[in-house]
Design brief:
Blueprint: H1 25-41, H2 43-68, H3 73-112
Length: 118
């Protein structure tokens, strides 16, 4: 049996990648400062946006469950948001009532002890 000829060698391609120069220290500091300033001044926008994105991830399984129960998309979203609103309002009410009780207990303790903290 005759041997097969070896495939021709591939010619080497020239290295056409750009040689990146490392950034100067001052450039890095300026970029970092601009990024921090943008986050600081944009927090009024970024914080609610981040909370909305987190809430959407939390509510997505509930919306999918409602969709599996053959409820259309918009009513499913409205129901999920209402449930989330009720839960958040309930937690806020619970925390508020606990803080009111704590305030009443502290004021009674201060009045009974004559204003001395022990």
């Amino acid at each position: 049996m005759a041997e097969k000829p070896a495939p021709p060698a591939r010619p080497e391609r020239p290295d056409i990648r750009m040689k990146a120069k490392p950034a100067a220290g001052s450039t890095t500091v300026i970029v970092f400062a601009v990024a921090v300033a943008a986050l600081y001044f944009g927090r009024e926008v970024f914080v609610p946006l981040a909370l909305a994105i987190l809430l959407s991830f939390v509510l997505a399984p509930l919306v999918l469950l409602l969709r599996r129960l053959h409820i259309p998309r918009v009513p499913s979203v409205i129901i999920a948001v209402l449930i989330a609103f009720i839960v958040i309002l309930g937690i806020g009410t619970l925390i508020g009532s606990q803080l009111a009780q704590l305030g009443a207990c502290l004021s009674n303790r201060v009045l009974l002890d004559g204003g001395a903290w022990s």
